[in-house]
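Design review, sub-item: ligand-bound model
Attendees: FS, YL, KQ
YL presented the inputs for the magnesium ion complex:
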Amino acid sequence: MTDLALARVKMVGMPINSTPSVSVYEVSPRDGLQNEAVVVPTDVKVELISRLIAAGVKDIEVTSFVRPSWIPQLADASEVVARLPHTDGVNFWGLIPNRRGLDRAIDGGLTHVATFMSASETHNQKNLNRTQRETLSAQREVIESAKAEDLVVRAYISTVFGCPYEGAVSIERTTQLAKQLSDAGADIIVLSDTIGTGNPNQVTEVVRSVTEAGIPLERLALHMHDTRGTAIPNIVAGLQAGIRTFDGSVGGVGGCPYAPGAAGNAASEDLVHVLESIGWDTGVDMSAIADAGAFLSAELKRELPKRLNRYHTESRSFVESCSA
Ligand code: MG
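KQ shared the predicted structure:
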C-alpha cells in the first residue's frame, strides 16, 4: 500500500480495496437481555443465538457467569452454554466477573471470555462492589489464569466517555487502565460508552491516546450506547480512527442497571446498515439480522429502539411507503 493510501486509511477510514471488512461483536444474549425485567426462557436465548449465527455474526457474547442472585436473567448461564449451536468460525464469549466466573466458563467449554471494570471509581464501586484498585488486582489474576488456559480475553472498560455519578472521565485514566489490562494479558480492550454520553471528537481523542500508549488498533473495540442518538456517529468516528471491531445488540436492546438513564446498545441492524452503506463488509446479512431483531422484539412483546425497521430492508415497501 502506498503512503498516500495508508494516510487515507488513517485519516478518513475509507476502504482502499474493494471489500475491506469490519467485525460486529453481538452482545444481545448477554448485555441486551440482562436489563430485561421479565426472564427470557433458555429456549429463546438459544434460538436467538442460532439466528445470529445464521445472519453471519462470528462473535457472540452469550451469557454472563455472575452470581445468579445478582442477575436472575442470566441464572441459566451454564444451561445456555451447554446448548450452544457450535459452528465453525463462530466464537462464543462469556462475561466473567471473577475467578469463580472464569471457572464456570471453562467448565462449560468456553474459549473466549470477557472481564469488565469502570474507568470511573464510583461506577466501578456501584457495579462491582469494589474499588478500582481491588478490581484491577483481582482482574490481573483472572486474566493471567485465563491466558494460562489459552483463552482469548476481552476486557471492557465502562464509562470511558462519561460516568452517571462523576460526569467527565479523564482520558489519562482510561489510557492508564487500558495499558494495565493489556499488560495483564487482555487481548482486546473494549472502550465503552456505558451511558451514551460520548461524542465523535472524544472517540478520536481516546483512541489516539490509547494507541499512543502502545495498544495497537487491532486490539481495540468500541461498545457504544445510543441514549442520545450518538452510537452510530461515534462508531463512524471510531472507524475513521482505525477501529475495526464494534459491539452491537439486535434491536438495540440493553441498558445498564447501575448506570441510570443508560438506554440501548448500538443496534446491530443500524450498525450493519451504516457500515455496509459506506463500503465496509460486515459479513452479516442485513435481512437476516433484522429478522433476528424482529424475533427478539416479538419475544419481548415490545418495539425495540433500533432505527432501522424491517420495512426498510425491503426497498420496494420503502419506496411505496414514501409519498413525499
Ligand atoms: Mg452495553
